[in-house]
Prior knowledge:
Number of domains: 2
Helix content: 40-55%
Number of strands: 5
Structural class: alpha+beta
Largest sheet: 3 strands, antiparallel
Strand order of the largest sheet: 1-2-3
Radius of gyration: 24 Å
Shape: rod-shaped
Amino acid sequence: MTTSTTTALQFSNVEPLLASTTISRNIMHCRFACPISGHEIEAQVNVDHANRAATLSRMKAKAQSGFMRSLRRSILRLVGSAAGHGEIGRIAREVTSEAVSDVSKKRVYSASEKQNAILAAFRMVASKFTWDVEREAWVLAGAHRIAKTCPSA
């Protein structure tokens, strides 16, 4: 990549190419569409790996999650001891379990984490695109040739 393409590799320049993005578990699936030809290129990336800078905060969150599981077990034992093992005890344990349980919540990624993942996915397919200096946009390599030979493009 030249200096101009390195500068162009910013989210604001890649975002217009996005035809779609989805996250399944921790995998970001991206479809990038050429603005000239409309052809789409797919890429996928692990969102967590694309955001290595956030590793420490994820480790902290996992430690807190482990602490919350231990705390939840302790509270459930206390409630079970206090309320007994009959119907009232079962109801008290269920209510307590729902109130304390935030461990199973789905991972929510920040806008910044999503943008980093999109850029990482684009880097995986960047060799299929070129930076069009006139348009100041990424286009599929050979798209100009396709546009000249195909009137519908």
